[in-house]
Amino acid sequence: MQISVARDVFQLAQVFTISRGSRTQAEVLTATVEGGGFRGKGECVPYARYGETLDSVAAQIEGFRGGWPDLPDALPAGAARNALDCAYWDHAAKKAGKRVWDLLGLPKPAPEITAYTLSLDTPDAMQQRAAQNAARPLLKVKLGTPDDMARLEAVRRGAPDVPIIVDANEGWTAEVYADLASHLIRLGVQMVEQPLPAGQDDMLAEIARPLPVCADESCHDRASLPALKGKYDMVNIKLDKAGGLTEALALKRQARAEGYGIMVGCMVGSSLAMAPATILAQGVAFTDLDGPLLLAEDRHQPLKFDDQGVHPPAAALWG
What we know:
This protein has helices at residues 54-63, 71-74, 79-96, 100-103, 123-132, 148-158, 174-186, 239-242, 245-257, 271-274, 277-280, and strands at residues 2-18, 21-35, 38-44, 116-118, 139-142, 164-167, 189-193, 213-215, 234-237, 261-264, 286-287, 305-306, 309-310. It is an alpha/beta fold. The mean pLDDT is 95.
């Protein structure tokens, strides 16, 4: 097998802001696995929060010398292993003349309703964006500052009837979250994602959790699960955190067996990055695969989004 990696840049439709910063582009890495006349591709988004850069992840991909079964031992859970694992799945499907879900023994994925993300901004701007997207079936609101109450109230004014989930991206303290919790319920929020920093979230086991709390930065792969017990009600599974579709599916099975609800999320990437996650997202509580909806440009033959949700990929895109 020949392995190569390329850097791709996709312009965002507008500035995307979370509690850790803003971006105007999605910078991704595309891994290609080629052999036997077939070519498989996988996309990853290196994430600085986890100590990853475009250069470091590209070096991991280029330096991999084993075969597909060697991935879990050769590379840690993260972006590089995700890109390679998804590229291997794509290659295997093309070589077999089947779809990835057939190789996995799973039914063809059905469309899944996905959240649409409102990035962090002023209350007025967030209210305007909420009003513009009030017809969507689910909004995800980026928060994570001490002054979030005004933002959330503004979003609810802009979209009075839409179900809402919120993501603090580790931006609150236990005191801020305890103060906000009752207001989140009053405003119809259905779930809160990663309210406290990973590694500083033990307080979640000691305070009331009046609505489901979902682990994002605190949950990467199956090895993360023991530390979540008693603190979280759900886990957000992302391919780039888990290290690929193979581990993500295993994490989904184990987390469900241990009683966690499941959310499937994404980094800000193209349709190629989301395509494998449409398999993972089947039947979960919340799907957040809106990355392509945030872009001004996308891959050839992008994923289809409509009122049924996000559809599985065409074979020409992936899998």
